[in-house]
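Comment on this:
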Amino acid sequence: MKFKFKIWIEDENGNAIVGKGGVELIKEILKTGSIAKAADNLNMSYKFAWEYSRKIEGTIGGLEPKKGGKNTGGTIVSDKIQQLVEIYENAEKEIQEILDKYSKKLDELNNVK
């Protein structure tokens, strides 16, 4: 047995803004410079990736598409969004370490006869 969890970032009204998928999308946009390439690499539809990035841009800001044609567009990811990703990943890591501790206790309990 083990503990599992999911975390996400909400706005002040309780609306989800960014979760694990959003963080992965942002990281892939950083790597590729493009929402389209990021979506392709993550096997998600371009429409979903575009709408997700627009939601982030609309609530937090920091994901700005550059206009252009083929091979000239792209997306600029602000320092604020990069810091958000870092904070999210640090929180996820800390929570996982705590849950690992308690999962170990579950294992110990499960081994008691």
The chain has one domain: 9-110. The domain at 9-110 is CATH 1.10.10.10 (Arc Repressor Mutant, subunit A). The longest helix spans residues 79-110.
